[in-house]
Structures are given as structure tokens and as C-alpha cells.
Inverse folding.
């Protein structure tokens, strides 16, 4: 997720911030390639359980619960599971991560709208690549990571080996995404994101350009009225505007996310 400030200023700031998730020194061979998942998810400290309640509100309508999401991490910052429920408490999606006796990530089970998919994980430290293979369809995602352990490219191929999707990520000095480009198939841009970040590492703005929808844009600004002692936000307010191709701007519902975090000792 490149920083708009000078590198020297960034380093001074970084020294004053809370410690990030544990460094990739334990917890499995995948940490030789990728940063701990809690760090990739922009969490500081040693998070154990994270819960987010998302609410929507608009003019003339009261705030209403839209979804509830849960994440769980181990002491090394590896994600164990996550799940999201809608306002009626129906499970919308979930992911379960499996590790071997040495703590290396070996499989992922995903559920979306009642459908299960299982993936085998393979790690190549030399190319800094992690491969995720769907056990049923044999579709394979090749994910490449930077020296800092953050994803910079993902290419998905079908069972015949044909590339069907590509995602390219440009990041700043802190590993935060500044530009994310989606191509489906590779060579055909469908959507792209432009993101800006605060010096504290919080997302400040996001612009989604929908090239497959006449170039319409969704522009989101973020506010963080509450943080905890570790430096993670506890309340996030998202204000969104849809900008049509002709320049017309339509205000979308405001989203407020309220978060609770428990930590490993």
C-alpha cells in the first residue's frame, strides 16, 4: 500500500510508530516470502482477534447494520480464519488457513454464498512466489511478493494454462498500495484503484475507476476519529461519491466501521 513525504521524514515518523506485526523470523517458510498477514492487513502490534461492524447511513435514513466481520491471527501474525455475516446473521463468506507442524501455510479453504473451494499452497523462496491451486478446477494463482514481503503481482491461469486475470500493485516505501490495476484477461484493463495514505499509515482516499463501466468513478475519503494504544483505528468513516462519465456526481451512503481488537501478550 510511494509515500508523498521525503524518505528522511518517513523514517523519522516510522521510528515513532508502534511496532508492526512480528518480523518474518518464525512461523513457517511462507514468511521468507511474504510479510505476516496481519501486517499485510495494515494492523500494528500483535493482534489476536479483530471484529468489525459496518453500518450504512444516508440522508433521511437512520444508521443500519450492513455486515459483521471477524478475523483471527496467531502469535506470529499468520491469519487463521476470517468470516463475514450480513445484517441477518447469514454467513456471506469465510476463509480458513491451514499450517503444517512447522507453521508453514499449506492450504486455504474458502466459502462464498454456500459454495466451498479448497486450495493447495506451494512456496518458492527463490522467485518470491506463492502458488495457490484450486483443488477442484485446477485454476492456479501465481502471487509474486516484493523484498519487503508485500504482493506486487498476481496472475491467474485456468486448468489449460491460459492467463485469465492479472493484478498489478504499485506500493510506497511503507508497503502501502498506491495503484492497483486489474486486467481480465491480461492486456484488457477492467478496473483500477488509486490510493493515498496518511503519515500514520491509514488510508486517506481511494479512487476506483471502472473502465468496464464507461469509466465511471467511485471516490472515497476516510476519517478515523478513534484509535487504540497500539495505533490501530477503532472507528472508520467512509464518505463516497459516484462520478459518472458526464461528470455528474452522486453521493452514496456513508459507511461507518466500528472495530474491536484483542492482542496476544
Amino acid at each position: 500500500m510511494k509515500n508523498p513525504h521525503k524518505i528522511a521524514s518517513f523514517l523519522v515518523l516510522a521510528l515513532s510508530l508502534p511496532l508492526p506485526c512480528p518480523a518474518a523470523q518464525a512461523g513457517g517458510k511462507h514468511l521468507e516470502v511474504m510479510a505476516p498477514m496481519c501486517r499485510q492487513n495494515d494492523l500494528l502490534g500483535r493482534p489476536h482477534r479483530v471484529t468489525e461492524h459496518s453500518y450504512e447511513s444516508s440522508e433521511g435514513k437512520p444508521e443500519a447494520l450492513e455486515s459483521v466481520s471477524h478475523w483471527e491471527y496467531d502469535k506470529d501474525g499468520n491469519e487463521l480464519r476470517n468470516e463475514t455475516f450480513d445484517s441477518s446473521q447469514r454467513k456471506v463468506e469465510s476463509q480458513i488457513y491451514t499450517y503444517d507442524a512447522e507453521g508453514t501455510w499449506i492450504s486455504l479453504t474458502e466459502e462464498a454464498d454456500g459454495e466451498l473451494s479448497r486450495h493447495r499452497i506451494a512456496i518458492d523462496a527463490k522467485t518470491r512466489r506463492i502458488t495457490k491451486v484450486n483443488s477442484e478446477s485446477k485454476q492456479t494463482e501465481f502471487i509474486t511478493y516484493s523484498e519487503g514481503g508485500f504482493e506486487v503481482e498476481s496472475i491467474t491461469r485456468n486448468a489449460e494454462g491460459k492467463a485469465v486475470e492479472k493484478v498489478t500493485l504499485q506500493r510506497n516505501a511503507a508497503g502501502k498500495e498506491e495503484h492497483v490495476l486489474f486486467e481480465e484477461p491480461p492486456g484488457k484493463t477492467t478496473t483500477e484503484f488509486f490510493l493515498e495514505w496518511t503519515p500514520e499509515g491509514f488510508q486517506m482516499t481511494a479512487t476506483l475507476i471502472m473502465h468496464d463501466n464507461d469509466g465511471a468513478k467511485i471516490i472515497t475519503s476516510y476519517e478515523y476519529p478513534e484509535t487504540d494504544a497500539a495505533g490501530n483505528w477503532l472507528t472508520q468513516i467512509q464518505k463516497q461519491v459516484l462520478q459518472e462519465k458526464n461528470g455528474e456526481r452522486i453521493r452514496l451512503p456513508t459507511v461507518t466501521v466500528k472495530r474491536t481488537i484483542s492482542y496476544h501478550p
User: Anything to note?
Assistant: Residues 1-18 have pLDDT under 50 and may be disordered. The CA atoms of residues 28 and 103 lie 4 Å apart. Residues 7-16 form the longest helix (10 residues).
